[in-house]
Amino acid sequence: MPAFSKIALFSSLIAYVSAQQAGSVTAETHPGLTSSVCTRSGTTNTCTTKSTKVVIDGNWRWLRNNQANQYNNCYTGNSFDATLCPSNTACAQNCALEGSDYSGTYGITTSGNALTLKFVTRSSTTNVGSRVYLMDTDTSYNMFNFMDSNSQEFAFDVDVSNMPCGVNAALYTVEMKANGGLNTANNKAGAKFGTGYCDAQCPHDLKFIEGSGNVEGWTPSSTDSNAGFGKAGACCNEMDIWEANSISNAYTPHPCKNIVGVSRCEDPVTCGDGSNRYAGVCDKDGCDFNPYRQGNHDFYGPGKTVDTTKKITVITQFIKDSSSNLVEIRRAWVQNNQVILQSKNEWAGIGDYNSITDDYCVKQKSVFGDNSYFVSPGGGLVEMGKSLARGHVLALSIWADHAAHLLWLNSPYPVDKDPSLPGVARGTCSTTSGDPNELINSAPNSSVTYSNIKVGQLCSTFPSGVTIPDSLCGGYIPPSGKFLQAPIRIP
């Protein structure tokens, strides 16, 4: 998820972790969250509503002894029960994942096409953060293919007015299995219980990967009393469509090399751990576009061109060339019934790009002094496009960062570099902000609302009544400067 340091530590102050057996103590009822699929014919847009729903990730659930009439925890604090989980296989067989109280325990509510996630929810327990997935049915995730047919776009509305420094509202897609890995090894829970997660950070904090436990070699976290790290990681391609709070935002493709779907890694080199960051199978940095980082400090934030005190419509376009390769990822905005084009890069040596292309990434990495893993052989947008064509699951979350305090998104980072250097400053937040343990007390009421999720042909998902520049509706513009598709103007 994050471009620089998502050893994604989704903190919870209660013993809710992922599991493999399907529990029967608490019924699992998925909150409804409608979404839309849109098409365009001539000058007419048609959007069809789908009765989709959401499911919370297994990382937040009660993991209990699966034996009849037994209710003791398989995982408490940041440790597994040694009797129930002596090995990876035994833990997956002995432990059951239970149903959830979405609003009461996790602060997750839906209404029509809107989803609200609260940062801290206090009831008889205290829960911090959450991650949910969009579902087609009660047993299957909704699969998105942004490479289907001609170039595609994805749109949603978001309210980040209540998202301060250090708290991340993330909407992104990962190459998970539609059924959540049901019946893989000992996984009897599947998508119904939110199993099967993976991302480009090859996260080690998952308790189960592909139906097998991650118990062996488990080490409790030194900064989070409810998290830990196993020997194995779960790697897969990831498209960060939206990582943001009220101060900064970024979108970032994270391709992986030579893997399809979920890939379990068990050695530091393959996982890209520590000093092996750029030797692993996935690009953990990715290639990001953050308007502030690209030199425009007046574009996004409270009272700025994109005003984060108000609801925002965010449109992301996935542009293919004549060979059906992904060659560009564009960003556009709508606010106050006006289309706002993405701001342009302002650093010398990169060019006036306002979208992500391989050429932009080559120049950005060079000027910023970042590692060029993204554009090395076997990576880049072409590889990202291949993954998107296989289908991705949509994840929506709110979280805080125990590893780097979210400085990579909204502050000068790395902290030992001069903020005036290209690419160092990513937002106006202090380098001392973002400690999750402090945010739980200082900003517990932080929340994000996502709504009006749409996918469809270019220019089919924009709100009615707005006029869109032809450059957003005409597809890929090759070096010849001519559109591969006829430009369209929305009336």
Topology:
Layout: E1 21-22, E2 35-41, E3 44-50, E4 53-56, E5 63-65, E6 75-76, E7 79-80, H1 88-94, E8 95-97, H2 102-106, E9 108-111, E10 114-118, E11 120-122, E12 126-128, E13 130-137, E14 140-141, E15 143-144, E16 152-159, E17 167-174, E18 208-209, E19 212-213, E20 219-220, E21 228-229, E22 233-235, E23 238-244, E24 249-254, E25 263-265, H3 268-271, E26 300-301, E27 306-307, E28 312-320, E29 326-335, E30 338-341, E31 355-356, H4 358-368, H5 380-390, E32 392-400, H6 407-410, H7 436-442, E33 447-457, H8 470-473
Parallel strand pairs: 1-8, 2-33, 26-27
Antiparallel strand pairs: 2-3, 4-13, 5-8, 6-7, 9-10, 10-33, 11-12, 13-14, 13-32, 15-32, 16-28, 16-33, 17-23, 17-32, 18-19, 20-21, 22-25, 23-24, 28-29, 29-30, 29-31
Total count of strands: 33
Range of strand content:
25-35%
Uncertain segments: 1-19, 480-491
Report the total helices. Answer: 8
Distance between the termini: 36 Å
Overall tally of domains: 1
Going by CATH, the architecture would be Distorted Sandwich
Percentage of residues assigned to helices: 10-25%
Radius of gyration: 21 Å
CATH superfamily: Glycoside hydrolase, family 7, domain
Helix/strand/pairing category = mainly beta
Write down the overall geometry: globular
